[in-house]
Amino acid sequence: MFKLIRNLILIGIVFFIGYLFGIKHIKFFKIVSSSMEPTLNIGDKIISLKPDKIKRKDIVVLLSPAGKKEILVKRVIGLPEERIKIENGYVYINGEKIEEEYIKEKPDYSVEETLIPSDCYFLLGDNRNESEDSKDWGPVQENLIIGKVIILYSPLKNFKFLK
To answer: Which helix (H) or strand (E) holds 152?
Structure first.
């Protein structure tokens, strides 16, 4: 019961801070696919804000770059003007392997080295082998990103702020 009350208070604080600072881009979404497991599961509910700056490892909500009328949730892996490659189950940024403690399993595919354009990001699902993402569509234009996921609020037992 205490945890429930604490979580509701935290959500209230987020809205109050948003109101104080004039943040109008608070949006709510429900996870409908397994592409972000184990971080986010089908049925989870999240809150996103329009970020000032997008950073590596941020989880973002975006419009499908494949032209479908759907909202997707992916993790930012590659930043503008970086070179990205996926080989032997690892992601390399500018030739350096990155650590990814959040993924469900190592990718069983490869992506040739790609230069990310200056207005784009390389986005992947945490469930690498079951996610349609930048390995399929290539880098994603920044204007397709709706917001950065900041809170997992439902189910309440899994409430957490996401970085």
So the answer is: strand 145-154
* CB-count exposure of residue 13 (10 Å: 0-12, 13-18, 19+): exposed
Q: Is 163 a catalytic residue?
A: no
Instruction: Tell me the whole-structure pTM to 2 decimals.
Output: 0.87
- The active-site residue, picked from 48, 74, 135, 154, is 74
Check if 74 is active-site. yes
Q: Give the active site residue among 35, 48, 134, 154.
A: 35
- How many Å is the maximal CA-CA distance in the chain? 51
Reduced 3-state DSSP string for 70-97:
CEEEEEEEECCCCEEEEECCEEEECCEE
What domains does the chain contain, in order, with CATH numbers?
2-78+123-161 (2.10.109.10)
Q: Is 128 helix (H, G, I), strand (E, B) or coil?
A: helix
Radius of gyration of the chain (CA): 16
Nearest Cα to Cα of residue 154 among 31, 44, 73: 44
pLDDT digits (tens, 9 = 90+) for 20-53: 555 557 888 999 999 999 999 999 999 998 888 9
